[in-house]
Write a structure and sequence with these properties.
mainly beta; Alpha-Beta Plaits; 13% helix; 38% strand; binds zinc ion
């Protein structure tokens, strides 16, 4: 049912309700030229409410971004209208150019060519820190 009209693309399902807009922004989906649907507060048996993002077309998605925003989300890859792959996510240990360091004194704010790199320092709390200045990602 959720696959619906998608021919070739991706459905990001089981997104925690309310997190789909953050995911949409971090994935850069405003730049997508293909059809993108963002469904908020869909009724889900398991979770109560969930968000869903459907991408009908070929758009490069960084799986680590999804895993960072919401490791409980699931990814369904659709080819020729058929579900060909279901991906479960794992919390990434390292994020490269997913989020930017907000510390104005961080070297990344002056050295523009540097990658923004964060590592998972406290797995239980889901805390990521900048490798240069140790500022927390969120
Ligand atoms: Zn930093």
């Amino acid at each position: 049912m959720i696959i619906g009209s998608i021919k070739n693309g991706m459905v990001i399902d089981h997104i925690t309700a309310g997190r789909s807009t953050e995911l949409y922004d971090l994935l850069g989906l405003e730049k997508a030229e293909c059809e993108v649907a963002l469904i908020r507060n869909a009724v889900s048996g398991k979770m109560g409410r969930k968000d869903i993002i459907k991408i009908n077309g070929d758009f490069p998605v960084d799986i680590n971004v999804i895993a960072y925003v919401d490791p409980k989300a699931t990814i369904n890859i659709i080819k020729d209208g058929v579900l060909v792959e279901k991906k479960a996510l794992q919390t990434p240990q390292k994020l490269v150019n997913v989020v930017k360091c907000q510390n104005p004194r961080c070297i990344t704010s002056t050295e523009q060519e540097l990658d923004h790199v964060f590592v998972l320092t406290e797995p239980e709390a889901g805390v990521y820190r900048c490798i240069y200045c140790e500022a927390q990602a969120k």
